[in-house]
Design goal:
single chain; alpha+beta; Aminopeptidase; 2 domains; 32% strand; globular; acyltransferase
Amino acid sequence: MAHDLPGVPPPGVEQIHAQLTRPALDGHRLAWLAAGPDGVPVGVACLRVFASAGRDHLAELDLHVDPAHRRLGTGSRLLSAAVAHCRAKGRRSLIAAAAADGPGEAFSERRGFRRAMTLDHLLLRFEELDEAGLRRAADAPHPGYRLTGWTGTVPDGLADAFAAAKNAMNDMPVGDLDYGSVAWDADRVHAMAKVVADRGDALLTLAAVHDDGTMAGYTEIVVPRGAPPRVQQYDTAVVPGHRGHGIGLWVKAAMVRRLRAEHPGAVEIETDNADDNVHMLAVNRALGFRSYRRTREFQLDVPAA
């Protein structure tokens, strides 16, 4: 990863350990390790197999081979093992990501994957913030709405409203990916928060609630365990009936303010958007996010067993 994604902090040992030992939400994970004749690891493949209704056709692959050992068949063997598992479990779609114009892109295309979406990765560096602009966005009046926030799992009194707002993510642009959909309810939002907590990360959520009790929109940030300087943007969504009122920019600006107050060690936020998600890209750029790399999402149509 360090070779193919310069500028992206590689995952630490604790983070990898948590991914390998903690259960995933909706399905299961598998991992394969490839080693050379001397026993030294040269490649790894991690497969997430989804099981929830709406995504039970889908699996997601993360595959890496040490640069010195590429073009020797290691990646192909790892891929074959993952595809065989997908076929055995009846999954018809396998998704993988690769750095744009990098070796992973060529590898994917040679092995029958088709390009389905381009993601623009953006960084918001706090040292470059337009402080006056942030204040205007965070303090802009929104009559009929109020902000509320929490850390970890959603309070019981907001769980149903939050789940309903989560379903707004199902109309997010995903290019040509056969990504399916997720039906959110209170149990699922609690389960998702538990997965994050169990791996040692902190989940921060800020939401806009309408006077009628519905949740108009929300944004989520994950602070990885160990409090590294870069934090990760998770979902941001505005419910269709509340769009066009600046809710997305409002909650994201207020989240930046909250993050800086509660986690002073954080210095930047990373997010990504499909390149055709023009509305969220506009919100992020208005806040000061700037593009720093691109990845492509590829999809393989898995032949039936």
